[in-house]
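Pilot study result, target chain (545 residues):
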Amino acid sequence: MSKRQHLWWIAAAVLFLTLAVLACGPQQPAGEGVSVTITSPASGVVVHVGEQVQVISMASAEAGVARVELLVNGQLVRTDAPPSGNPTSFAVAQQWSPVAPGEETISVVAYDVNGAASEPAAIAVRVEAGTAGVTVTPSVTQTPMPDVLGEGGCTLNASYVADVTIPDDTQLLPGTTFAKTWRIRNSGTCNWGSGFKLVFVSGDQMGAPGMVAVPPTAAGSTADVTVNMTAPATPGTYRSNWRMQSDTGLMFGSSVYVRIVVPAPVTVTPTTGPTLTPTAGPTSETPAPPSNLLATLLPDGTVRFTWTDAVGEAQYRYEFSFVAGGLGAATASTLPANTTSWNGGHVDCGGTGGFTIIALAGDGSEIGRQSVSFSTPACEGVTVILTPIASLSGSLSEGGCDGSIRAGIAPAGNGIRGLVSFDIASLNSASDIVAATLDLSSYTLTGNPFEFLRPLHVRHIQYVDRCDYPAAYSGGGGSELAAISAAVPGLTTPIDVRTVLKNYLDSGDPTRFQIRLYFEGDDGGSAYASMANWSTVRLTVTYRP
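Predicted structure:
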């Protein structure tokens, strides 16, 4: 995206948020110039235990957005900062997984660079048991797969148990984001530890990542594994096939799949305003709303909206929004009477959006409106999984360094910070970075560092020597990637680093992408000794050559 387009999106987002606040009437007092709204999901939705709920919000701050906090029933779950700098508007997608049935209140709070907080934006959701709608009997009898020999002589195997969500042939509208959850049994004799994955093997990927972490599962037990996907834009039947992979890369067990149906579009019935009685006279026309609204993706990457002209309008008002890769923007403005098309500009792959056209009479009253939703094709490209450079990765404290990746407080009371370096030299030739995520799921905890030391900061920095104290310990500049307040879902949910990585690659020809892992309270002393340890950290990048 060009700099001009980038500035257009930012300006559009600020304009839309301003109009939204004015439209909703007087607000409760908040930090001056700081506001936040939740755009998805809607209040009152039903979710299930274990489901990955994606909360999308848009924050605005005159002084610049510093961070957005996600809370459930008043308890902090996750904190996210803008990927670069402190923009005046920031759209963010944050995930939360409910653990028990009941009524929950989800809220988000935005903070500016001066520490001023917005008034919370809140929605209510009802959590139902995770077994609701489970299909226990597979639609097709599976042929058991042979055991695969694992480390130590134990066997690796996996078998399908149930569809926890999205039964076969569920109908989903184009662009609908959904969470598919399978129940899978560890039918081998090896326990599944950190580093075990469910990986995409064939079929339609539907915007999903190439792999997701599987929770530790003892032999004979079951695990619920969730993959977030997006229904394709084109009507049809789609199937996505997945299979287990061990921490050493061995594929094993029966495949599991999801099959959905995207129905053909139906005629949209426009929402009309109050019936207006035309002024008596031989030349009067009965006002009518716009109709036949269509969204068309053009070869140049832009989206164009067309409609049949309304009758009797003095002008139009439009509202447009688009979200891709967890980031989004929105705008609203007016168009002259008799307009029948509008171009929304460039839209990224793998996104969803909406457009509403509203016909207004001369007195400002609404004649009628029509809305349309659209989605862009899933991002395609080459996917690579990068692992740490051993000589440049490990941990550092005032007392020295070693090759293990960990963060927290040692028994002696000294703070320990993790350093991870990835070789990205091959990415300099990429024409575009489609997606990039940081995987911290291969972890163990000694004590509970998240109880007293949180949050865990994940920061992009630059350093030369992992043993250089204090330069690598507290210097290196860079930007915040995430601030994690709980191991689950914080460490089990991949961190989106696409924007930071892309901007870093655009700044020159860097050969290393480096991060620091550290707890905010790692200066608390030996009374709070505890540690997070990682066997590895992975950077998964999808790019176009």
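One observation from the pilot: The mean pLDDT is 83. A full batch analysis is planned for the follow-on phase.
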